[in-house]
């Protein structure tokens, strides 16, 4: 077989899509520190990312976070071109896990897949929030450190309000802290070294 016979035929537009996916993945990996030792979170740094369905909301929330005085680490996507939400959710969750960001925000169409992905990263407690009550509960009761949002389910105004509550609410009561410690104990049972 000649080298020309081994070539794969790529249809118009497929190459551009493949290149975008590779670039998004590389950028996400560059934004995610590789240190294994957890560091103290940067108190005013928020990692944020979105897939193509959440880019517009991400841009709005990044501006809002800056207005609130937070430093923003944008993990992509940077256009409405299709990307895979697990890559973005992982990049945000890794920054939180490594202590490079105090909290993270991930936006996709419904927020569900990003929460599932982020929760696979050690030390991350991601919560899909769709109103102020769930945002407050996620922080007060579960000490969630990553917020996921569904861009197709909520508008920008509600998203801003959810983010504000999520960032301003603490897990203060001892009974809740004890329960969070139990969550982390479950995680430790399944960590592979």
Strand content: 5-15%
Strand line-up across the major sheet: 2-1-3-5-4
Q: Which ranges are low-confidence, i.e. pLDDT below 50, for 5 or more consecutive residues?
A: 32-38
Into which percent range does the helicity of residues fall? 40-55%
| Named CATH topology | Ribose 5-phosphate Isomerase B, Chain: A
* CATH class label: Alpha Beta
Reported CATH architecture: 3-Layer(aba) Sandwich
The mean pLDDT is 86
How would you sum up the major sheet?
Answer: 5 strands, parallel
Shape: globular
Determine Rg (CA atoms, Å). 18 Å
Structural class designation:
alpha/beta
CATH homologous superfamily title? Sugar-phosphate isomerase, RpiB/LacA/LacB
N-to-C CA distance: 44 Å
Number of strands: 5
Total DSSP helices = 8
- How many distinct domains? 1
Order of helices and strands: HHEHEHEHEHEHH
What's the arrangement of secondary structure elements?
Layout (H helix, E strand, L loop, with lengths): L2 H4 L7 H18 L13 E6 L4 H13 L3 E4 L10 H13 L5 E6 L3 H7 L7 E3 L3 H9 L5 E5 L5 H13 L5 H17 L3
Helix pairs in contact: 2-4, 3-7, 4-5, 6-7
Any overview of this molecule?
It is globular, with a radius of gyration of 18 Å. The longest helix is centred in the N-terminal third of the chain and has 18 residues, at 14-31. It starts with a helix and ends with a helix. 49% of the residues lie in helices and 12% in strands. It is of the alpha/beta class. The chain has a single domain (3-190), classed as Sugar-phosphate isomerase, RpiB/LacA/LacB (Ribose 5-phosphate Isomerase B, Chain: A).
